[in-house]
Each structure stands twice: as C-alpha cells, then as structure tokens.
Amino acid sequence: MAQPELLYLDGAAVDAAMPDVAARIELAERTMLALIEDADLPPKIGVDARPTGSFGHAMPAFLRGPASDGSTDLMGVKWVVGFPANSGRGLPTIHATVILSDALTGLPIAMLDGAPITADRTAAISGVAIRYWGPTTRGAIPQGARVAILGAGVQARSHVPVIGHLLPGASVVVHDRHPERAEAVAEIARNTPGIATAKTASNTHDATIDADVVVTAVSFGPIRQTLGKADLAPNALVIAVDYATSVHHAVAREAGLFLVDEPGQFLAQRAAGQFDDYPEPGSTIGLAIRDRITRPATGRVLVSHLGVGLADLVFADVIVRNATTAGLGIKLPR
User: Fold this and answer.
1) Contact 97, 79 (CB under 8 A)
2) Which homologous superfamily is 6-117+310-332 in?
3) For residue 327, what are the β-bridge partners?
4) Chain region(s) in the chain for CATH 3.30.1780.10
5) Is the dihedral of CA 160, 165, 166, 169 positive or negative?
6) How far apart, in whole angstroms, are the C-alpha atoms of residue 265 and residue 71?
7) Handedness of CA 82, 97, 23, 286 (dihedral sign)
8) CA distance 68 to 78
9) How far apart are CA 191 and CA 310, in angstroms?
10) pTM of the predicted model over 0.85
11) Could you tell me where in the chain the CATH 3.40.50.720 domains are found?
C-alpha cells in the first residue's frame, strides 16, 4: 500500500491558511470545552537547554472525534523551544513545530511551522476569556473598554486583532521595557479595526491601573510576580499569558474568580516553581463555560492559560484542510 506524501507548511503557508479572527475564537472555545471531556493531554514534557533559561517542551495531545471508528480523531504533538538569549542575536526566542498524525494508522500526515499557530491560538484563548468574563454593562460590552498589554512581542501583536474584534471602541495602552517596541505595537493597534485609540506607557503601573482588561505577555525571566494589586483596577480581567512572570500571587489569592486552561499543567508548573504561592484555581475555562460561571459582581478575574498542545492540533487540522483546498504547502516524499 502506497503511503501518502507528507505535507509541509511553512510560516507563510500557515498564515495564508489561518482562519479569521472570529473562527479562531470559536476553535479556542471548542478546545477549552474538549479538555474537560474528549481529550487526553499529559503535562508538558520538558528539558532545559544549556543557555540559561532555555527549554524544550513536547506537547502531545489526542482528541476523540464523533465517529466511532476513530476516523475523526485528532492526534499529534507540538515541539516548542524557547531561547531567550536569541533576542540579542536578532532571532526569534520561540520556535515551534506541529506534527499531525493519522489517528487510524499513526502515519505523520502534516508538519507545520508552529510559530503562527502558537501566536494565534494563544490570543484566541484570551479572546474566549474576554468573551465570557470581560467588562460588561447590562450584559453588553461597553464602548471604550480600556485594555493594557504588557510586553510588545509576538503575543502582543497577535492579541491586537482579537481585542478589536471583541471590544469595539477599545482604547489600548502598551508597555514594554523597549519603548520603540511598544510604539510599534501601538501603531499596529491604531490601524486595527475596532480599536479607537492606542498609546504607550512608560511603566507598568500607568498602563494597568485603570484598565478593564490586562494582558500580560512579557518575556519569561528570573524576576517574577511584579504586577501587584496596587497596579490593577478592582474589577479588572487579568489574562496571564506569561505564567506568573507578571502577576503576583496575591492577585490570584484575592481574585473573585481564578481560572486556568488545564489544571494538570498548572499544578505541574506550580510544583516546578513557576507559580510559587498561587492557590488552587477555582475552575477551568472549559468547566466555567459549561457550568455558566459568570464574573463576580465585584472583584478581579484572573485567567491564566499555560498553552495546551490540543489547541495547536485543533488549529493545525483546520489549517491543513484550508491549505489543501488552496493548494498550499510542499508535499514531501517518504
């Protein structure tokens, strides 16, 4: 039996086949719900590389589909490495590859550049948090919601269109330790549909103190938990993309609602020292959606998503289908 060719999609092909913002948010919500009933997702398997702070993580995942014969299942793995020192070399600090396997035979069927997927699926999960626990006025998103973004890297840029889509009329403030990078993201925001204004702040406190939504996406580093209660509005939605690099444990302990994407990964990372003094989460994103848990009348909501490999597979499956229809990618012989 002849084996099918392996489809390779580079970053440009992945970008071209990426679904639009609204569809990405729907895929992210589907992933969060699947985590509570249809998926197998072990905690990340990690190794530390020799340069200080560098790592490699393997993120296998399996999703049971509706067909009883397994033909609609998803199976695959994401391999992601982080080398913080690359920023001084003019290289990306994160590299990722996603491999999809045929769930019936185990044959690899596609290999994708994971960087665009990582960026867009992460922002889409933040979008789910905004949709369900963002600022509301009588059930409707208010015009002119204030959004702070900490960090001006890839994740900051990927969050901008999600903010514009979900919070029309939003004003955005960006802070980064490199002011020119913050200004570059602010300029992108100014030209993004749905965003009314965008500016930069010279320090974290000024960026976040009156924000309705705070997205923390700074680079991982040895200094952690720098964003405290005094830096945040009393009813802010805080979305932590950078683990506990920014958000102080007191914010989590006193939150009206504290959610994570997947508890096994959170607990594994806490045991490894990434979430020192953090409490047990109140629930998961998927369970909170299923159980219709709304934001409290008063108090902050903290949503910490650690990045789950299942999201990469769900996105990759749609991207491969779109790419195949459009004739994108390179077919590699086996």
Assistant:
1) yes
2) ornithine cyclodeaminase, domain 1 (3.30.1780.10)
3) none
4) 6-117+310-332
5) positive
6) 28
7) negative
8) 26
9) 32
10) yes
11) 123-308
Residue 297: is it exposed, middle or buried by C-beta count within 10 angstroms (0-12/13-18/19+)?
Answer: exposed
Cβ neighbours for 202, distance < 8 A, ≥ 6 positions apart? 175, 179
DSSP alpha helices (H): ranges in 114-178?
A: 115-133, 154-166
Tens of pLDDT, residues 230-267:
999 999 999 999 999 999 999 999 999 999 999 998 99
Terminal C-alpha separation, the chain: 13
Q: Return all residues near 135 (Cβ < 8 A) that are at least 6 apart.
A: 141, 142, 145, 167, 212, 213, 235, 237
Token pair, residue 97, equals 């590859």
Residue type (1 letter), 290: R
Q: In what order do the strands lie in the sheet with 257-260?
A: 195-200, 170-175, 146-150, 213-216, 237-240, 301-304, 257-260, 283-284
Q: Where are the alpha helices (DSSP H) in 191-294?
A: 204-208, 249-253, 263-271, 285-290
49-53: long-range contacts at Cβ-Cβ below 8 A with a sequence spacing of 24 or more?
Answer: 49/81, 49/83, 51/83, 51/84, 51/85, 52/85, 53/82, 53/84, 53/85, 53/220, 53/221, 53/222
* Choice between 72 and 334, residue whose per-residue pLDDT is larger: 72
pLDDT digits (tens, 9 = 90+) for 188-221: 999 999 999 999 999 999 999 999 999 999 987 7
Domain 123-308 CATH class label: alpha beta
d(CA 31, CA 67) in angstroms, rounded, equals 18
* Joined tokens for residue 41: 């997702």
Written as six digits, the tokens of 39 are 């998926």
Do the bridges between strand 195-200 and strand 237-240 make them parallel or antiparallel, or are there none, so unpaired? Answer: unpaired
